[in-house]
Amino acid sequence: MSTERLRIGFLPLVDAALPILAHELGFAEAEGLSLDLVRDVTWATVRDRLLYGHTDMAHMVAPLAIATALGRDRPATPMAVPFVLGLNGNAITFSTALGDACGLGDTLGDPYRVGATLRAVAAARAAEGRRLRFGVVHRYSSHNYMLRYWLAGVGIRPDDDVEIVVTSPTFAADALAAGEVDGICVGEPWNSIAVDRGVGRIALATAQIWRRGVEKVLAMRADIAEDRGDATLRLIRALHAAAEHFVRPDTADASAAILAQPRYLDASPDAIQRAITDRIRLVSGGTPIHYPDFMFQHREAANFPWRSQAAWLYAQMTRWDGRAYDANDAAIAAATFRPDLYRAALAGSGAVLPGASSKLEGALGAPIGAGSTQGRLMLGNDRFFDGRSFDPDDIAGYLATMP
Questions:
Q1: Are 344 and 233 in contact (CB under 8 A)?
Q2: Selection from 298, 309, 304, 234 nearest residue 63 by Cα
Q3: What percent of the chain lies above the pLDDT cut of 70?
Q4: Is the pLDDT of residue 306 over 80?
Q5: What string of DSSP letters covers 236-259?
Q6: Which of 290, 264, 285, 254 is nearest to 275 (CA)?
């Protein structure tokens, strides 16, 4: 097998682990791939490198791949997402002042109780003419949609009662420290860095908002997926092997040490290791608490690109962009996720392959068996905090019920 070189863009986040480990631990090399990992500081730059051919593939927030395919903010470019790099893994962190004002305790709060206190604080601040401001990592990010979904669900109107602005993950703690934002919704280790610096207090994990929320993905232009199809399939296999390794408890310390290196996350190994092992330090100097599935990288076919996940993101995009539902746009969004490539890469391996490409999202409160074409598939709790479910075949009906 000849060695093929792939350039992959990423941001310094714990959920960039799989391409980094695939490179560092030889999983890519075993598939005949040589990976060049290109670090950036904003999602816009990651996207632009990809579109202009400076990289071949990228670690990317899932909604940005869909927005790019739909031509939001720039000319439309067909995209392909054949692999999900992780579910969950983000948090909503308040400034220490806002945390005190909301009476946050020493455990993760209940979304409704935290929302009620935040609503009162937001109303008081708005009456004083200085609305609360929250930072998210990109307009088209799961962070933005998770934050908005929660705020709206507890009676806080995004853009009216509070402001939402964009801040790079790497500068989120600085934005809190400078008082430029009152809260952030970012991925790890940047919530933990804000906490360890004493400028932030974690209020909620986004897994409390959507228990199996799709997060980062492997994204590429659709023409690259076609023209370099064999390399794409090989990379999927390498990432799948890296995911199996990453979730083993005995590898957490070594993985954290690799990710902490300056060329990757350039962050504390301890903060990274806490995220990997589902332990969250909520307040500076506090004892980390265990929150199961804070990050979710492999079990339950977590790496499978469900088209229903893409459809939910499209629904949120439609909702918050103030656009009408468009069946053609919905089809483009769903088709951006490519379960066909995932199946082609892993057929004949030990990987679990779901039989369906779409499912009812948010409908499961307990583990249940699901149909598969290979292996035994179990799906766990995927509830939304408000008890709603999402039917990808009735997006218009779903949107009509939104507050």
A1: yes
A2: 309
A3: 100
A4: yes
A5: HHHHHHHHHHHTSGGGHHHHHHHH
A6: 290
